[in-house]
Amino acid sequence: MRLEVDITGKIFRNAAGEQHDVIAGVAFALDAGEVGVFVGPSGCGKSTMIRILAGLDHDFRGRVLRPAGARIGIVFQEPRLLPWRSVEENVRLVAPLADDKKLSALFEILELSAHRNHFPGELSLGLARRVALARAFAVEPDFLILDEPLASLDDALAARLREQIATLVDGRSVMTLLVTHDVEDAVRLGDRLFLLSPRPARLLAELAIPTPRRLRRDAEIAAIKSDVMRRINGDLTGRDG
Ligand SMILES: Nc1ncnc2c1ncn2[C@@H]1O[C@H](COP(=O)(O)OP(=O)(O)OP(=O)(O)O)[C@@H](O)[C@H]1O
Ligand SMILES: [Mg+2]
């Protein structure tokens, strides 16, 4: 199971025919069991790239080789739940064959058990994000795509949810792509970080973190974080591998 990506260009055109370059050049590969993280500034083209990688947008230059027959679980930047369906129905709709025990375990990990019969309108954003995560995991994906799943949550909730994502990802050998602009999340969750330039997105550097997620100590995390910050701020431009 391997994802191979070489996107050489992506352009949006508006109604007036003006061109808007969004992706300039992003090439990388990801293997089963790996968590790849896109880190880049707002508006640089991350969600656009996610749609291309998920196979939802075919209008780009380059090549994306997705593993054949891979089941894709995706969490969009907005939770996108069906408002007239309960939490449980939202999850079951995408995974009609999911067994009850597994679903209960998933709701338990994501601390959603008490909300199974609630409707999206009754949920806080943090809860809605967790339902979107439950929905993505319920299909038992081979390829998991998470677009800013922790954005705009308070620090404590984001940290808990990050733990929950790590638990779910480590529980099965899934190829994961996470989008975030939070370097802390990237360094705590990722195996490989893809640092992106401002729009149009270009891969500035690729950084592997060999220490398994669970064994990373605060000092190592802090060191990697400052390395990432330096690279993002361009101090090492021209020296990056
Ligand atoms: N359907 C579209 N038509 C035209 N322009 C678009 C479209 N979708 C996105 N864009 C533009 O492409 C650029 C990249 O958008 P995208 O949503 O991919 O950024 P992002 O990196 O995900 O940003 P954020 O971190 O804020 O979510 C933006 O300038 C955006 O306005
Ligand atoms: Mg986005």
Note down, in words, how this protein is organized.
This protein has 241 residues and is an alpha/beta fold. It has two domains: 2-71 and 141-232, Rossmann fold (3-Layer(aba) Sandwich); 79-139, no CATH class. 33% of the residues lie in helices and 26% in strands. The mean pLDDT is 91. Adenosine-5'-triphosphate binds at residues 12, 20, 22, 40, 42-48, 77, 181, 199.
Task: List the defining traits of the structure above.
single chain; 241 residues; alpha/beta; Rossmann fold; nine-stranded mixed sheet; binds adenosine-5'-triphosphate; binds magnesium ion
CATH architecture of the largest domain: 3-Layer(aba) Sandwich
What is the CATH superfamily of the largest domain? P-loop containing nucleotide triphosphate hydrolases
Order of helices and strands: EEEHEEHHHEHEHEEH
**β-strand number:** 9
**Number of H/I helices:** 7
Helix content bin: 25-40%
- Described by the principal axes of the CA atoms, the overall outline is globular
Radius of gyration: 18 Å
Task: Extract low-pLDDT stretches.
Answer: none
Could you give a short account of the major beta sheet?
Answer: 9 strands, mixed
- CATH fold field value of the largest domain: Rossmann fold
Number of domains: 2
The rounded distance between the terminal residues' Cα atoms is 25 Å
Strand sequence of the main sheet, in spatial order?
A: 4-1-2-9-8-3-7-6-5
Strand content: 25-35%
Q: Look at the structure and give the CATH class of the largest domain.
A: Alpha Beta
